[in-house]
Design a protein that fits this description.
141 residues, 43% strand, 3-stranded antiparallel β-sheet
């Protein structure tokens, strides 16, 4: 039996959600990331449900690996006469950045996208210690 929610919900939304069902992804579920530490590399596993491979971009700039994902969906349902019963659209994007070091290059990072999961392999590279230069002041006299 369909019972409307009283607090914080809309009766119309409850009514229309019941017969059709919905697919929603909350912000907490988008881009959930696991990072595994291996001997010579890190493995970044990121969940991107409902995102297509073409809508995912990975960029390496100034030591930061940035993943951008965008989504545009359109759910149209019509009755027998072609009149709209419901039309819904979703458009959004999300982004995550990880510092991987200045020594990592774009060619070093390997990426694979399969079944809504992005897997990135980032090698561990030790940063070169900065060469300390002694600057002396000339003393006259």
């Amino acid at each position: 039996m369909l019972m409307p929610s009283v607090f914080g919900e809309n009766l119309i939304d409850d009514f229309f959600d019941f017969p059709f069902g919905t697919y929603t992804v909350s912000n907490a579920e988008m881009m959930k990331t696991d990072i595994k530490d291996h001997d010579d590399h890190y493995e970044i596993i990121m969940n991107l449900p409902g995102i297509r491979k073409e809508d995912v971009k990975a960029e390496l700039k100034d030591g930061y690996l940035t993943i951008n994902a965008s989504s545009n969906t359109n759910n149209d349902e019509k009755d027998e006469k072609g009149r709209y019963i419901r039309r819904e659209r979703y458009s959004g994007s999300c982004c995550r950045s990880f510092y991987v070091g200045d020594e990592v290059t774009q060619e070093d990072v390997k990426a694979k996208f399969e079944n809504g999961t992005l897997t990135l392999t980032v090698p561990k590279k030790e940063q070169k210690p900065a060469v300390e230069e002694n600057k002396y002041i000339a003393i006259e006299g």
